[in-house]
Every structure is written in structure tokens, then in C-alpha cells.
Write a structure and sequence with these properties.
The chain is α+β, with helices and mostly antiparallel strands and 272 residues long. It has seven helices and ten strands. It has two domains: 119 residues, Alpha-Beta Barrel (N-terminal domain of MutM-like DNA repair proteins); 124 residues, Helicase, Ruva Protein, domain 3, CATH 1.10.8.50. A hairpin with a 2-residue loop joins strand 9 and strand 10. The chain is elongated and about 55 Å long. The structure holds a DNA duplex (16 and 16 nucleotides).
DNA sequence: AGACGTACCTGACCGC
DNA sequence: TGCGGTCAGGTACGTC
């Protein structure tokens, strides 16, 4: 379940292995992912040198010499495997080979992810990126921005911070964890947050994500050749997935409810 | 503009 | 053991 910190970790890992290298082959096993892989993708990627690798929201952007950008998204179940020991597995949809003989494999059982290519100049206006809100770890994402963005929103704050137009990269885990850290109930209507609460929430989102990135970073060495599920931030989760366990602050039993068809975990004593 | 329901998809899990 | 049903959720899209 890759969220922003996991994508950041994968991006860093890719940078370490293939930045400055050249693609020598692209093998596509399945074109139909969340969006269909363009037929001309191989042609545009082959023989191109990688000039930059960046994360934006939960997308991985691989910039090429020819001014095109290879765009990857891991969806719910996607993985990037770098030089896996086993030759192949089910759901290896795209296999990239580089001139240092590294193999980069895009594997995604549920196919909610995507692999596509967009010209550098079209990126910002493309369907995928045009409507995205600010990066949570940027200075643009501050309490003034957040208050303004949510002032007309009557939906619960949990659903609101998971909305990519409000802020990108905050998925199911980090929305729950950030609300717990800031003592705000996920049920609160977004437009009822006070200035103080918005400040707390911004800090909580940033710290939670940053902590997770740091945790991911510390297990970087083990990340290659693993499923990507191991280690990580799981040990630091305080409410997510902890239904019927005790809150580590007040010993209240953690509640699991559904909001907009999705699971929410929270402590109704600590969060109001 | 914002809210909301639905669709996409497979694997894990559960009950019989 | 096997089989069918249900659930999980990031994102896009259509409708009101």
C-alpha cells in the first residue's frame, strides 16, 4: 500500500540505481493498467538517458534526455523491483533494462497503478497533474492555505485531507495518524476547524510523513529485492489498523468507522 | 464548486 | 478442500 513516504523511498532508490543511465529495452507484458500504456512509449524511452528522477504527489517522474517524462504510479498494490533475484513473477507488467544491466520492474496485481509518458512541457497541464493541490512537505502547505482550502467544505476533515485537490499524498494511513497526532476527530466537518487546529494538523501531517520517510530511509538498504512491505513505519502507527486495541495515550479502545466507504481509525477520547 | 456514488481490480479472508 | 461472497482503497468520472 504505497503512500507518499513509500513513493519517496522508491524514488530515492531509483535515483541511486539508475540516474544518469540509459534505457536499452522496454518490455511491456500488459498495456491495460489504470490508463492504457501509450503504444509509442517504448520508442520514446529507448536509448534515452535519465537526467532527473523526482516524486510529485504519489507519482514518480523519470526525466529523459529527449524532454519526455516517464510517469509511474503504484496505485494500491504496485511495486518497483530493482534487479529482483527471481526471474519473473505474476503481474510484472513492464520491464525496463538499462545500460548498466539493471532491470527495473513495474509489478502491480490490482492494476490501479499506471505507466505513461508525457512531454516535459505538457506535464503541468496534463490531466494527471493539473488539479493537484500542494505538496504536504512544501512551505506552500501551511495553516493559512489549509484554512482557505477547507473553509467551504462541509465534508469530514478526514475525507477532506485525503482529497488530492486540497493536499496531495495523504492517504488512508497518514490521514488517520495525523488526525490522531493533532487531536482532531475525523468526523469534524472541515469548515469547523479553528486556526489553532489547522496549525496543529499541518504540523501533524508534515511530521507524520517525515517520520515515515525517515523510517523508510533507514530500511533503504533492505528495500531492493524485497516486496516493499517489510519493515517501515508499521511499528509507529498509533491508530491505523488498531481497531479494538487500546489508545497509547488514554487506554480508550480505538474505534473503526467507515467514512465515504473507507475505514477510519481513531480514539474518541483523544480526538474531538 | 463541491458532494457523492460508482467503477476499476486481485488477493486475502471468511463461512459453509 | 474448495468455493463463492465480501472487503480493501487511490483515483477518475458522471451527475446533481
Amino acid at each position: 500500500m504505497p503512500e507518499l513516504p513509500e513513493v519517496e523511498t522508491v524514488t530515492t532508490e531509483l535515483r541511486n540505481h539508475i540516474l544518469g543511465k540509459r534505457f536499452t529495452d522496454v518490455h511491456i507484458n500488459r498495456y491495460k493498467l489504470r490508463i492504457t500504456i501509450p503504444a509509442f512509449l517504448s520508442e520514446l524511452v529507448n536509448n534515452q538517458k535519465i537526467t532527473k528522477i523526482q516524486r510529485q504527489a504519489k507519482y514518480i517522474l523519470i526525466y529523459l534526455d529527449n524532454e519526455y517524462v516517464l510517469v509511474l504510479h503504484l496505485g494500491m498494490s504496485g511495486k518497483i523491483l530493482i534487479n529482483p533475484k527471481e526471474p519473473s513473477r505474476k503481474h510484472d507488467h513492464v520491464i525496463f533494462t538499462l545500460n548498466n544491466n539493471h532491470k527495473i520492474i513495474f509489478n502491480d496485481p490490482r492494476r490501479f497503478g499506471l505507466v505513461t509518458i508525457i512531454h516535459n512541457l505538457d506535464l503541468a497541464h496534463s490531466k494527471l497533474f493539473a488539479k493537484l493541490g500542494p505538496e504536504p512537505l512544501s512551505s506552500e502547505f501551511n495553516s493559512r492555505y489549509l484554512l482557505n482550502a477547507i473553509k467551504k467544505r462541509v465534508m469530514p476533515i478526514k475525507t477532506t485531507i485525503m482529497n488530492n485537490q486540497v493536499v496531495v499524498g495523504v492517504g488512508k494511513i497518514y490521514s488517520c495518524e495525523s488526525l490522531f497526532r493533532s487531536g482532531i476527530s475525523p468526523l469534524r466537518k472541515a469548515n469547523t476547524l479553528t486556526v489553532k487546529e489547522a496549525e496543529k494538523l499541518v504540523v501533524a501531517i508534515q511530521q507524520t510523513l517525515q517520520d515515515a520517510i525517515t523510517a523508510g530511509g533507514s530500511s533503504l538498504k533492505d528495500y531492493v529485492n524485497t516486496s516493499g512491505d517489510a519493515g517501515y513505519f508499521q511499528n509507529n502507527l498509533r491508530v491505523y489498523g488498531k481497531a479494538n486495541q487500546l489508545c497509547d495515550v488514554c487506554n480508550t479502545i480505538i474505534t473503526n468507522i467507515r467514512q465515504s466507504g473507507r475505514s477510519t481509525f481513531y480514539c474518541y477520547t483523544c480526538q474531538c
